[in-house]
Amino acid sequence: MSETVDRPRRYLVRTFGCQMNEHDSERIAGQFEAEGMVPAHDEDDADVIVLNTCCIRENADNRLYGTLGHLKPRKDADPDLQIVVSGCLAQKDRDLVRERAPYVDVVMGTHNVHRAADLVERARREGPLTEILDAAVADDATTFPSALPPRRDQQHAAWVTIQVGCDNSCAFCIVPAVRGAEISRPFLALVDEVRRLADDGVTEVTLLGQNVNSYGRDLTLAERRAGGDGPVRPLFADLLRAAGAVDGIRRVRFTSPHPKDLRPETIAAMAEVPEVCNHLHLPLQSGSDRVLAAMHRGYTAERYLDRLRRARAEIDDLAVTTDIIVGFPGETDDDFARTLEVAAEARYDSAYTFIYSPRPGTEAATMTDVEVPADVIAERFERLRVVVERTAVERHAARVGRVEEVTVEGPSRKDPSVLTGRTSQNKLVHFASERPLRVGTYVTVAVTGAASHHLRGDLMDVVAPARHRTRIPVASA
Ligand code: SF4
């Protein structure tokens, strides 16, 4: 729909990807709203459609080009509609996006999220444009999406980007190529941001980075330049402690730590700071040392398990989740058997299991001579699912009879008469409530039932009301 009457322009941001992308989407939306635009109800109602892409997930390119193909007739009928492709796939395939969808108005990469509103405005005046910066610029507001004004869907919870990029070189992963080298955000700027969020009524923050445990490695100089009184060389553990100490913050989460960099200080902070949630997402990827070496993961299965044992020994009631890839090139039956053993020993609360698929531009994508046949992968994937599900069910069943503190996230999608929330362990809980409860309210729930992916329970008490102001939607003409 074009802007034929004097009404605010409407935007829609669709995210195909990880939390980092979702967070970038929030910042893109925040900029549009700062320019007076309002959210559209759906694609048909939008004047600007942003497709924020991720190339980590499987089929991201098919999904992008499928969506672009579906938008083309609308663009043909309404040339004033603006289509923006942003994110990792745009960064990686800059020319290809233009080649395959010349009607796209703006192609922008991962390092220029802060320019979204400007680029859309410029393209309106000057026609289609592509802007891909090859490296992050060392400037807080530019490099870190958190330093831009947000448009958060959840008002009680916020993501805080603590680091961008990655210095590792996992053979299957495109992140270092599209997000660049690791840059940590200065410690004091982060603590300030958490304070501002808490002043705004946010009670839960999730610290985001590709490898949060290496946070701060590059910071000494920046910290000195900032002239603050934070630690000279802050560790991730210092950040956990500082975020947990901010008045009003009840929960601190983070994702993801690399197992090789999980330091004793991080485990100690998780154990000692009550606000830091007792949930650790520790990506295993494979249980075979041979495959781990081929992936360049920097740990063996035994070292991984050893760190996990230490974390469990120190952190009370810890939930552990993971990522596992099945069918990495060259994975043998013995390698896979080891993955099953390690998964069983780790006793995960849940696991994201992925069928390996090559990402163009990665080292693993060149290992075509040792690809594992699809039927073998499918059979292994099913065996792994059974092992993971068994421990997930057991660990969920062990919660029955307990009283859990739960943050209300809203009505259940399947049954709106039931409310949904999350525990500190990040477990989904469904419970009935006769009284209306605002999203962000902390309640206690007596757990009465368990399935592999959620718990059920009865509402007991309200522990803390939601603190954020209710956002009044901007009326659109
Ligand atoms: S640690 Fe490995 S998997 Fe994670 S972002 Fe860096 S390269 Fe990718």
Model description:
With 477 residues, this protein is of the alpha/beta class. Helices cover 34% and strands 21% of the residues. It is built from 15 helices and 19 strands. The strands form 5 sheets. The protein has a 6-stranded parallel beta sheet with strand order 2-1-3-4-5-6, with helices on both faces. α10 (236-244) packs parallel to α11 (264-272). Mean pLDDT is 87; it is low at 472-477. Residues 166, 168-170, 173, 175-176, 210-211, 258 line the site of iron/sulfur cluster (SF4).
Q: Biggest sheet, strands in spatial order?
A: 2-1-3-4-5-6
Low-confidence stretches: 472-477
Shape call: globular
Instruction: Tally the helices.
Output: 15
Largest sheet descriptor: 6 strands, parallel
Q: Proportion of β residues?
A: 15-25%
What's the overall average pLDDT, rounded?
87
- The total strand number stands at 19
Helix residue percentage: 25-40%
End-to-end separation in angstroms reads 13 Å
Structural class: alpha/beta
User: Oligomer, anyone?
Assistant: single chain
Please state the CA-atom Rg, rounded to the nearest Å: 23 Å
State the gist of this model:
By secondary structure, the protein is α/β, with parallel strands linked by helices. The chain contains 15 helices and 19 strands. It starts with 9 loop residues before the first strand and ends in a 13-residue tail after the last strand.
Describe the secondary-structure layout.
Layout: E1 10-16, H1 19-34, E2 38-39, E3 48-53, H2 60-77, E4 82-87, H3 88-92, H4 94-100, E5 106-108, H5 116-126, E6 129-131, H6 140-143, E7 157-161, E8 163-164, H7 175-179, E9 183-184, H8 187-199, E10 204-208, H9 220-226, H10 236-244, E11 251-255, H11 264-272, E12 279-281, H12 289-295, H13 301-314, E13 319-326, H14 333-346, E14 350-355, H15 374-397, E15 403-411, E16 418-423, E17 428-432, E18 442-450, E19 455-464
Parallel strand pairs: 1-2, 1-3, 3-4, 4-5, 5-6, 7-10, 10-11, 12-13, 13-14, 17-19
Antiparallel strand pairs: 8-9, 15-16, 15-18, 16-17, 18-19
